[in-house]
Amino acid sequence: MNRIVRFLGLSATAGALSLGLCAPAAEASALADRTATVNITFDMMDYENFGKNERCRHNLLRSKTGRIGGPATNFKAWATCGGEIRTEIHYRLRWAAPGILTVDNIVIWFFEGDSADTPWLKGKGSIGTFMLWMGQTATRQIRVQNDADGQPDDRTILTFTVSN
User: Fold this and answer.
1) Which residue of 51, 108, 112, 162 sits 20 to 30 Å from the alpha carbon of 11, by its own alpha carbon?
2) For 98-143, how does the pLDDT look when each residue is reduced to its tens digit (9 = 90+)?
3) CA atoms within 13 A of residue 84's CA, in its CB half-sphere
4) What residue stretch is flagged as signal peptide (predicted)?
């Protein structure tokens, strides 16, 4: 039986990882690929009680393709600031008929330590599930900060925009 194979990235940063999806050729016409555009802006501040504070702004624009009726796909993106702060966003995209995109499992983690690779989670937040019809765009914004050490000036304002 002929098979059509499509590949989806599992992560915005780990391009080598992919998941193969197979569909019989006869069913291929009933399934359709959809592309979402994801724009993530990290507005970060590394507060210092000595010297100068560091402010960083990173804008990540990604296109993600999925199959209507196919499995949900998880993604991760991150940015760093000041050599000791890292903010990560984890999210999942899932397309359903008639082209509705569900964005869920959205979690934001704020790390601060001796380096940007630190495992020390100092703050976290989440964004609720939302759905987009074809042609729709939604933007959500959240602030995460160093709550663990009582340093709210060490923070990230994350803007998450998704277009279906």
Assistant:
1) 112
2) 889 999 999 999 999 988 999 999 999 999 999 999 999 999 999 9
3) 12
4) 1-25
Task: DSSP for 56-95, please give it.
Answer: EEEEEEEEEEEETTS--EEEEEEEEETTTEEEEEEEEEEE
Q: What is the CA radius of gyration of the chain?
A: 18
Give the N- to C-terminal CA distance of the chain in Å, as an integer: 33
* pTM attached to this predicted model: 0.77
CB count in 10 Å sphere of residue 160: 21
How far, in Å, CA of 27 to CA of 131, rounded?
A: 26
Q: How far apart are CA 58 and CA 78, in angstroms?
A: 9
Tokens of 122: 């100092």
